[in-house]
Specification:
The chain has 170 residues and is α+β, with helices and mostly antiparallel strands. Helix content is 19%, strand content 34%. It has four helices and 14 strands. It has helices spanning 25-31, 88-102, 141-145, 147-151, and strands at residues 7-8, 10-11, 15-16, 19-20, 39-41, 46-50, 54-59, 62-68, 75-78, 81-82, 106-108, 114-116, 121-128, 131-139. Strands 5-6-7-8-14-13-12-11 form an eight-stranded antiparallel beta sheet. Strands 1-9-10 form a three-stranded mixed beta sheet, with no helix packed on it. Strands 2-3-4 form a three-stranded antiparallel beta sheet, with no helix packed on it. β5 (39-41) and β6 (46-50) form a beta hairpin. The longest helix has 15 residues, at 88-102. The termini are far apart.
Length: 170
């Protein structure tokens, strides 16, 4: 994506940008300005990759997760803080501080990513060349708060790099 990246609004528990949880694949394609997915992936959940750094995941044919690329995906802000493309330690600390200030529910996923479950926000890291950058995922609360879903592998793990040189959560 060249030039200025899109800015999307976080709608806690509802979706992000033009996407709302529960949408069908056809409605998602329409919401993303009618462009169809560049790639479809099967597995325990259906995945579609769209232009502009947007990946979507479905549970039983309904939108359940939106993953945005750290560099090419739309930018989403949480209380003025850009979530994508940041230093992971800085982003992680921002989420901890935000949760403490606003009473958000915190959770760590099996890959040690930090989630604010009541906002439907999961912050992962993405390897870009030699750097690690923050990468936000937005998903239905059930995927974040349930051991059952985590155990079944519903949380998208694609592209989650091995962490090098930054502290693991306690």
């Amino acid at each position: 994506m060249h030039g200025e990246r899109q800015h999307w609004e976080l709608l806690p528990a509802l979706g992000v940008g033009p996407l709302r949880f529960g949408m069908s694949p056809a409605v998602v394609a329409d919401a993303l300005q009618g462009c169809g997915p560049l790639k479809r992936v099967g597995g325990p959940y259906a995945q579609e990759d769209f232009a502009g750094g947007v990946k979507v995941f479905y549970d039983e044919g309904k939108l359940a997760c939106v993953a945005l690329d750290a560099v090419t995906g739309p930018q989403v802000f949480l209380a003025g803080f850009a979530l994508a493309g940041r230093d992971p330690e800085q982003a992680h600390q921002y989420l901890l501080d935000h949760a403490a200030e606003h009473g958000n529910c915190l959770a760590y996923t099996p890959d040690h990513s930090l989630a604010l479950t009541d906002l439907g926000l999961l912050l992962r890291v993405q390897q870009i060349a030699d750097a690690l950058l923050s990468r936000p995922l937005f998903m239905i609360e059930q995927w974040l708060e349930s051991e059952y879903y985590c155990a079944r592998g519903h949380l998208p793990l694609e592209g989650a790099p091995v962490r090098h040189g930054w502290s693991e959560p306690l």
